[in-house]
Amino acid sequence: MPDAAARALSDEERAWLESQTSSLLDFTKHAVHPDGGFAWLDDDGVPQLGRPVELWVTCRMTHVLALAALRGDSASLALVDHGVAALTGRLHDDEHGGWYAAVETAPDGTSRPADDSKQAYAHAFVVLAAASATAAGHPGARALLDDALAVFADRFWLEEDGLAADTWDRAFATRDPYRGVNANLHTVEALLAAHDVTGDAVLLDRATSIVTRVVHEFARGNGYRLPEHYDTQWQALLDYNRDHPADKFRPYGVTIGHLLEWARLALHVRTAHGDAAPAWLLSDAVALFDRAVADGWDVDGAPGFVYTADFDATPVVRTRLHWVAAEGLATAWTLALVTGESGYRTWFDVWRQHVEDVFVDPVRGSWHHELDVTNHPSHLVWDGKPDTYHAYQAVLLPSLGETTSFVAGVVRAAAGHGA
Fold it and tell me: What number of H helices and E strands is found in the chain?
């Protein structure tokens, strides 16, 4: 049974979490792009209208707004419509199917692809946004979800591997030989949400298959220092991007935040399976969490998670990214809830205070997306504050109780069954 300490938030903690939920939502609402979709936001929350509209940003913001709408924020529902309209309109490739990675406005005012690649990472977020919008009652979201799931099944799912491929060209004619676990991570998240909305057991089966391969095979087989990059045979490419270690999406080495995120997702899969869940889902989640803390937290003389480490635990990119701290919060809370061990709640308390002390921007809003090794704002990996998804989910999760996805947790909490 969950430890009562894992559930019981003080009034001060509840107030802080709710204030962050509210302020992050307010920041999200700034991102509307007048040409469609959601714009990249700078440090002040000003939309960068001359910059391409990214598919993943539009999907993440639509997802956040759908969760807010489910929580009773009526103003968010109209913005969900703005997101869905972009996903069924300017971001959708009507000729070849699927979605452009990014679009821009041409000089004549029409929309055109700025990046016409078809990426599993971004397509996973289409599924997530569509699932959340469906739960929020958007009339066009279920058709969008069905389309996104069909594209995933037809183009990205590799049945023989039990995993998802990564990237195609625009016409789905040539598939990139690169395979990666980042896209698979977000595919698990998306499939769990879609399963909760549709009840389709195949989606849970595929999410479970991915977690089995990545967590119980790849991570466990490497001492839980998970390799991120692979060839077509799923052989690890341990030197991939050694010369570009601070890449936003494909950094070299072990990505500390992903160890935490995979741990949380394994726990969500465990909850989805109930009494039939294999025991390793919990033990592997604990091992991933322990590895992330040992290799990533407070390892270079200042509080904070490093972005990446080498396979011998040597820090590589020491920059602190907000999303890693957010995943630390979310995973510590989830482990406290499912194990009843107060030590995880202690970690939640430590990281909540860390976030409040260094990441929250009380002047300009949202969280600093990146800090340097002295915990001051920097821009080595990220510029601006492009989205609120990781932070919003982290401060929302403690109000949801044990859940299989954020959308399921919000629906349940709205019905009076939350934490």
Answer: 14, 13
d(CA 378, CA 141): 37
**Does residue 167 lie within any of the structural domains?**
yes
pTM recorded for the entire structure: 0.97
In a domain, 293, yes or no: yes
CA 43 to chain centre: 20
Strand 157-158 with 163-164, pairing: antiparallel
> Above pLDDT 90, what percent of the chain?
96
Is there a contact between 172 and 156 (Cβ–Cβ < 8 Å)?
no
Residue 93 burial by Cβ neighbours in a 10 Å radius (0-12, 13-18, 19+): middle
The amino acid that residue 333 corresponds to is W
Q: Is residue 251 classed as helix, strand or coil in its secondary structure? A: coil
Residue 285 structural domain: 4-414
**CA distance linking residue 152 with residue 329, whole number of Å:** 30
**Among 349, 295, 351, CA closest to 326:** 351
pLDDT tens for each residue of 184-200: 999 999 999 999 999 99
For position 45, which CATH number holds? 1.50.10.10
Q: State how many domains the chain has.
A: 1
Distance of CA 171 to the CA centre of its chain: 27
Distance CA 77, CA 79 (A): 5
Supply the residues annotated as catalytic: 258, 390
- Return phi, psi of residue 38, to 5°: -120, 135
Write the CB contacts of 17 (distance below 8 Å, at least 6 apart in sequence): 9, 395, 396, 398, 399
Residue 35 β-bridge partners? none
E strand segments, 235-369 = 254-255, 308-309, 320-321
**What is the arithmetic mean of pLDDT over 312-327?**
98
Q: Which two tokens stand for residue 177?
A: 């030989």
Q: Considering the domain boundaries, does residue 419 fall inside one?
A: no
| pLDDT at res. 418 | 62
Per-residue pLDDT tens digits for 327-368: 999 999 999 999 999 999 999 999 999 999 999 999 999 999
pLDDT of 22: 98
Angle, alpha carbons 91-95-100 (nearest 5°): 30
